[in-house]
Structure formats: structure tokens, C-alpha cells
Design a protein that fits this description.
By secondary structure, the protein is α/β, with parallel strands linked by helices. The protein contains ten helices and 21 strands. It binds adenosine-5'-triphosphate and magnesium ion.
Amino acid sequence: MAKKRRVYECQACGFKSSKWMGKCTNCGVWDSFLELSDEQIEISKKIENSSKNPKAYPITKIKEDKIERFSTFDTELDLVLGGGIVPGSLVLIGGSPGVGKSTLLLKMCANLAKNGKKVLYVSAEESQGQIKLRANRIEANEDNLYLLSEIKLENILVELSNQNYELLVIDSIQTIYTEEITSAPGTVSQVRAVTFELMRVAKSTKTSIFIIGHITKDGSIAGPRVLEHMVDTVLYFEGDSSKDIRILRGFKNRFGSISEVGIFEMTKVGLVSAKDISGKFFSKKKRQAGSAITVVMEGSRPLVIEVQALVSESGYANPKRSATGFDSNRLTMLLALLEKKLELPFNQYDVFVNISGGIKIGETAADLAVIAAILSSFRNRPLNSETIFLGEVGLTGDIREVQMLDNRLKEAASQGFKKAIVPSKPIENNLLKCFVVDEVSKIIEWM
Ligand SMILES: Nc1ncnc2c1ncn2[C@@H]1O[C@H](COP(=O)(O)OP(=O)(O)OP(=O)(O)O)[C@@H](O)[C@H]1O
Ligand SMILES: [Mg+2]
């Protein structure tokens, strides 16, 4: 008799192996391998093969799909989605617990229902009564909005086929299971099979489907990375749930750009598009030592933000470096540069950097502000309250140009700033007084 072929799968990333491993060689997670049953192997093969189209056509003979988006009636959400919802698309929204995923989608459903779309909101986490409570609070009671509290995929699909819903929300993908597979909800096999079925339904019935996914501490969708590959659009919620501002960022979008972000504010009546976004990410009070202001670009929008740094004497041989909202490798690089160019003994100090408002900086234009905040904390001397810092710092200590300098300066001026330390003179005559600094050691003159 032929020996049975065993297949083990990492429950974190979906990596398969013929041997059990203590640590996944693909994603590095410990103790995540489970043996797949025959039926699970069969289903995963089916999913892998399904995308193989046996018939090829010349591209010149193929008619393009017409994309007709519909609005969510929420300007910020439309912006991140690339202009609205595409019928038949599958959108994944991830975010940490309590960030507002259910709130945002329930309100979106209500807005669509109010405007004549028939919408089904499926919750596997909360009872209908619980959702009703939220709906009362955020004013989401609409006749065309239907609630279903269900964890079995087959029952959801029956409800979907009985009525012609145009939009379906699944809250959350980790709590739904399909009968076809015996493993527990939330495992890679379950999530993959459920998502695959939802994808098929979305494409064949042109129903748009939004699925909510929990994320792990390191920020990826809990369990399966495979999920991100399967869906059309992936959006992540960022923000500190203890603060009011939330940012919805596009991570992948098959129907649009991912350069724009949506900015929301959590209020008593739910998440609302932040009207006056500028001015919410920095303190307008007098600057304290360790605080510097810069302007970052979020998509096409400039945002004035505050960089905070704390430099304190270290009691350890290996001083601590920690960055929240800023790349920690970049922080280490900037500190090494300060040590070399300004001969400051940072090897004896712990350094902490934080970007206020829960923003994550993904660009290098804030380097100069990070340096300014560190030096201000180190010397215990506040910076000028009316000055902003812009510039990328190179490994040689030179300060490099930043993109969209004029846009950034204009925004800073509208927020009442008067002076800017910049790497190059702006093209337009600006309302701010600009001082060009081309070398990191010269920054000390402006401290
Ligand atoms: N009465 C209220 N007033 C203001 N904000 C509230 C109120 N009730 C709840 N919230 C906010 O809503 C958040 C919870 O939102 P929601 O349930 O949509 O989050 P979630 O991302 O779906 O969480 P989970 O992952 O637990 O499902 C709370 O963290 C809080 O910030
Ligand atoms: Mg929720």
C-alpha cells in the first residue's frame, strides 16, 4: 500500500511543508504547523487550480470590463477606495480591536441603504440586539439594512441568494466557518475556503462584499497572509484607539491607487470624516523641549504633525532606542550620524521617538524634525514654536530635498507657522521665512 502523503501548513502564513516544523521557515512564527486532512488538501488544490483559465485570447480581441463605481456617501471612504465601491469587488478591512471597523461599516451600510441599496450586514461576533444598540447610537436605522447574526457560511449564502442584496458585510472573517472543512474558524484552511467562496459569489452575482479581519500585534491580518492575496482591496485602520483620529490606509487596490488615505474622527455618533483634519496632529501650545513640527504628505494631502523625542541617561551598557510611528532602523541611523557629525555621546543615552496622533510616517522628509526633536530633548531646550523642519538626511550628513515642498510650506503657513528650516529654497514666494540648511551639523544654529 502506498504511504499516505502528509501535508503540514503554517497557520500564520499558509506555507506548506511535508514535515512538521517547530518554527515556520517562511514567516518565522513558532508552533504554527498543523497537519491537513485529506479533504483540506483537496480543497486547497481546488482553490489553487481554479484560477487557471484553460483558454487564452489575444489581448486585442478582449473587451475590457466596465467599472461603474458607486459612492459610499462618505468622502474619505470613497477616497481610499479609489472613487467608490466597484460592484462585485471583495474588500478586506483590517484593524486592531476597538479601532472602529464595525462602526465604520455599519454606518456605510446605513448610508447605502438610505440611498436605495439593499444591504446585508452579517455579524458573527455580536447579536442583532447589540448591533441595534450601535445602530441607534450612530443613527443607522434604515429599512433597507438587514442584520443577520450567523457564523455558518452556507446559511449566509442561502440568505444572500433569497434576496437580491447589492452589498454584503462580513464581521469578521475569522469567526465564520464552512461545513466543508472540519478545522476551527480562524485557521488558514477555514479563512481561505470561506474567502474563496465569497470571492466566487461576489464575482458571479456582482454583489460587493466587505470583510472585516482582525489584526495581530505585529499588524498583519490575524492568521492568513493568503487573505490579502485573494481579495481585490485591502484597507488597514491605523490610529490609537485611545485617541479620536483614525486613518484608513489602502494597502492594495486592484481598482485604484493606494496613495490616498481616509481620515476619520471617532465621535459619539460614530466615525465621521474628519472635517478639519489639519491642526489635529500637533499641539498648538508652546513647544516643550523634545518636540518638533514637520509636514508629512498623506497621499496628496499635507499634514502638520508633531515629532516628540525623549533623551535620557541610560543605566545600561546597551542603551535603548524605541520609535513609535517612525522606522526604528532609521532612528538608529540618525543617532549614529549625530554622534559622528556633532560628537554627541548618544551611546550613553536612551532615545525614544514618538509621532503624535497615532500617525505612521512612511517618508523620509521628517528626518530633520526627528533630529531637531532629539537635540531639543538632549539639550533640554524647547524649539521655537513657530518653526517647522523639513528635510531628508543622507548617510553622509547632507540634507536632501523633499517632494512637494511648496504644498507642505503652504499648509504650515495656514496653520500659523512663520519659519521653516528647509533643504532648498521653495519655488513659490512663500508666506514662511525659509532658511536653507544643507548639512546636518548646521542644524545646531537653529536650535
Ligand atoms: N458611546 C460612545 N461614544 C464614543 N465612542 C464610542 C462609544 N461607544 C463606542 N465608541 C468607540 O467605538 C469603538 C468600538 O468600535 P467598534 O466596535 O466599531 O470597533 P471594532 O474595530 O469593530 O472592534 P472589534 O475588533 O472589537 O470588533 C470604541 O473603542 C470606542 O472608541
Ligand atoms: Mg467589531
